[in-house]
Design a protein that fits this description.
single chain; 2 domains; 10 helices; transferase; protein prenyltransferase activity; PTAR1 protein
Length: about 250
């Protein structure tokens, strides 16, 4: 792999062609740590190329890197799925998938939800594969983390923008509605995950992986509900404090 890196850096070997070669290698050695590590290095080169191109063109061709990143991400998801199907509990493949989400998908809500949907069938037919369910826990926890951050920003904005009482009330009402929609949506997906666990446990009652995933999802649901209540309490405190100052 060292020589292939040198060829890529010198411009002799195309990074995209190297990714194709790596995909072929993974069909025979789906768990090879060296292959996955090298693959991330190649992807990092492509990400840096896109960043430089965007900087040099000052955003005039900004759509091109975004489109290529999207294609790369979809390609990597397919590679990961193939490798996971060839080797049970392929931790290296699922870890690579997480890396791709972080660096190409930027853990956006849409990407996370798409992944929840696209991997649902896979785990349903691989009920003993702990790595697949661990990946879904990563998706759910990432969604929870995004919601917590967004709620904190909403509360901070409400407390900062207190120029007059009428404007304050309008902003706080709108902000509270947005936060509620986000939390309801998150809880909906957590409930769907619990329903999936229940269905699979009914069909495959003896699989420990399913019970562990169910317990972890239930714990996430409780944490999410607690976070929502805390955010609402902070909002009320901000309203009360502001009202007393206005009075």
């Amino acid at each position: 792999y060292h020589s292939r890196k040198e060829l890529i850096l010198s411009g002799t070997l195309s990074p995209l062609k190297d990714l194709h070669l790596g995909r072929l290698a993974l069909t025979k050695f789906p768990k090879s740590p060296e292959t996955w590590i090298h693959r991330r290095w190649v992807l990092q080169q492509l990400i840096q190329e896109d960043s430089l191109a965007s900087l040099l063109t000052k955003g005039s061709l900004g759509a091109a890197p975004v489109e290529r990143n999207h294609r790369l991400m979809q390609e990597e998801m397919n590679v990961c799925s193939e490798a996971a199907g060839r080797y049970p509990s392929n931790y290296n493949a699922w870890s690579h998938r997480i890396w791709v989400l972080q660096h190409l998908g930027k853990l956006s809500a849409k990407v996370l939800l798409d992944e929840l949907s696209s991997t649902k069938y896979w785990v349903s037919v691989h009920v003993s594969d702990h790595s697949g369910f661990h990946y879904r826990q990563f998706l759910l926890k990432s969604l929870i983390s995004r919601t917590v951050t967004e709620n904190n920003v909403l509360v901070q904005n409400q407390m900062i923008n207190q120029q007059n009482l009428s404007l304050q009330k309008e902003e706080q009402t709108a902000g509270a509605g947005t936060a509620e929609e986000q939390n309801v949506d998150l809880l909906h997906h957590l409930e769907e995950e619990l329903e999936l666990c229940t269905e699979l446990i009914d069909i495959y009652p003896g699989h420990e992986t399913l019970w562990c995933h169910s317990d972890e999802t239930l714990n996430n649901s409780h944490n999410s509900a607690a976070t929502r209540d805390m955010a609402q309490a902070m909002d009320v405190d901000g309203l009360s404090e502001s009202s007393s100052k206005q009075g």
